[in-house]
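Lesson 9: reading folded outputs for more than one chain in a single document. The general rule is that every protein is listed as its sequence immediately followed by its structure tokens, and records are never interleaved. Here is the first one.
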Amino acid sequence: MEITAYTMEKITDPTGILTGERYEFRLYITLDEEDELYAEGGTGIRAIFAVDGDVEKIASAYFFERETENILDFELEEEEIEAILAFCQNNLEA
């Protein structure tokens, strides 16, 4: 899995219930054609990155088909979540 592009947007909690800040990252990835997650129109990962004081974590993340925005029914593996967390931490200020 290689991240080729991304977008980031700060999310506003209209209810004021959530503490800290939330950011939506859309990571656009390239995969081998043999990979079961491969889609002709492209595959992406939508991740909600939460920052609350010194705590930074991935609140949610899932794969999606870029062309249709359909969610793909695959779980992210632990090392993928760790890689996404590191990516979000490194690109929050960008």
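And here is the second record, again sequence then tokens.
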Amino acid sequence: MPRLALGTVQFGLDYGVSNKRGRIPADEAFAILDEAGHEHGRVLDTAAAYGTSEDVLGEYLGRRETGFKVVSKYAAERSVPGGLLQQLERTLERLAQKDIYGYLLHSFSDLEKVPGVWEEMIRVRETGLAQKIGFSLYSPEELESLFQKGILFDIVQVPHSVFDRRFAPFFGRLKDKGVEIHTRSVFLQGLAFMGPKGLSGVLQGAGPALGSLAAVARAERMTVQELCLRFSASEPLIDEVVVGVDGLKAWQENVRCFSSGPLSKGIVASLGAAAINDEEILLPFRWGK
């Protein structure tokens, strides 16, 4: 069964289409980390692009010994003189850590836009600044390109949810290569909690999927939150399910739902109608276009 990882983007940014609260105050972020730390080896997912997220984590991690495994990401648009290694050093400084568990390229396009960037990533692993290296991807075509180029990586982070099944056919191949699979967007930035009447623009196309999800929730007497989390828990090839939160209660409820375990095969099958194939809906960075 996969493990539940804590996404920390809302520690540093106002994030999520249904997020009405904004950035989480530092004291509540620390309370969430206290709760999350009850499970040794919990992954914390952050990035240089997540506002002050790394700073908040560093303020917490620098004061105590924890069993967290931190994964951060390189963003070329935020690069400093000297490139990737210097940005990672800045990330480690902000996190108050000498090294981290994983370091990912935040954008696949950086592989071609930034000369020598993958060679720098390999040096990061060789020097022990990060135990594992890899990619944050958005489309299966990006993954296919990595396969074709023969690039060897340790971790891949991809979207996966009741709505988005695009990467699932590749999970077996990734595990055969020894790749650790982290998934994100369980709630598709909160879209799962919106009613069809609250949708506009391209998101109106998600109405039927949301209606189907709500119908299954009613039939099974579960919340949408529980269905989405337990759907992710039902994929045995996933290693980590990264979930962001807007507060302590949300994290506690996520843990409770996820801990209920995988869904039955029948319920998983009933969620088939909630799948969406349109990348204009599945990729949030396209919503405003």
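What the second record shows: Residues 70 and 247 are 20 Å apart (CA to CA).
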